[in-house]
Write a structure and sequence with these properties.
The complex is a heterodimer of chains A (120) and B (113).
Chain A lengths: L3 E4 L2 E4 L5 E7 L4 E9 L6 E7 L5 E2 L8 E7 L2 E6 L8 E9 L11 E2 L3 E5 L1
Parallel strand pairs in A: 2-11
Antiparallel strand pairs in A: 1-3, 3-8, 4-5, 4-9, 5-6, 7-8, 9-10, 9-11
Chain B lengths: L3 E3 L4 E4 L4 E7 L6 E7 L6 E6 L3 E5 L2 E6 L4 E6 L8 E8 L9 E2 L3 E6 L1
Parallel strand pairs in B: 2-11
Antiparallel strand pairs in B: 1-3, 3-8, 4-5, 4-9, 6-7, 7-8, 9-10, 9-11
The chains are: A mainly beta (120), B mainly beta (113).
């Protein structure tokens, strides 16, 4: 299947700092990338959807000024958590869906391994 | 009422057992169905993807879709301890890349050696 990577896999930061998480599709072009948040023993909660070269679409209740998303190329999207606070501590997962004809099927989302954020 | 219902378990079975995981959904607009496996502290891994009603087999895994009953299943044959994980059903309305997934709550499975 298609491969999606995330970096870093684990980050600890102080309250008030900003953290950037990268999501890359390694072997296909991702027209659309999705960012999720997951709390322990819960399912994935969609935060936003981003298309290459366009502004991200945020889900209701997600602060777009706090969670900045950039999808600058067909293989890279970044999520920046600005002025992080302890309540932002969570597991952040991206997924990517590709263009027709590429290895990533438009029918499915392929997920990255996730980034665990701990804000002290 | 949730759009997708999935029993969270936990489900515990002995090694070698046949495991049946199920989801029901209420919205007939869902046309594409997926099963993901998620190990602890990892991202979900796509196991099966189906569109039509009927069965799809891949190794020890069989996905079943019954659109008339709005019911999907994942069967795992000869279950192994390495199958211990959370299994998420997911579905979407459209095949376009921007179409969002709606997930079930996930079923936590433990296969005991």
């Amino acid at each position: 299947g298609a491969v999606v990577s995330q970096h870093p896999s684990w980050v600890i930061c102080k309250s008030g700092t900003s953290v950037k998480i990268e999501c890359r599709s390694l072997d296909f072009q991702a027209t659309t990338m999705f960012w999720y948040r997951q709390f322990p023993k819960q399912s994935l909660m969609l935060m936003a959807t981003s298309n290459e070269g366009s502004k991200a679409t945020y889900e209701q209740g997600v602060e777009k000024d706090k969670f900045l998303i950039n999808h600058a190329s067909l293989t890279l999207s970044t999520l920046t958590v600005t002025s992080a606070h302890p309540e932002d501590s969570s597991f952040y997962i991206c997924s990517a869906s590709g263009t027709s004809g590429s290895k990533g099927s438009t029918d499915t989302q392929y997920f990255g391994p996730g980034t665990r954020l701990t804000v002290l | 009422q949730k759009e997708v219902e999935q029993d969270p378990g936990p489900l515990s079975v002995p090694e070698g057992a046949i495991v049946s995981l199920n989801c029901t959904y209420s919205n007939s607009a869902f046309q594409y169905f997926m099963w993901y496996r998620q190990y602890s502290r990892k991202g979900p891994e796509l196991l099966m993807y189906t569109y039509s009603s009927g069965n799809k087999e891949d190794g020890r895994f069989t996905a079943q879709v019954d659109k008339s009953s709005k019911y999907i299943s994942l069967f795992i044959r000869d279950s192994q301890p390495s199958d211990s994980a959370t299994y998420l059903c997911a579905m979407k309305r459209s095949e376009t890349s921007g179409s969002r997934l709606t997930f079930g709550e996930g079923t936590q499975l433990t296969v005991n050696p």
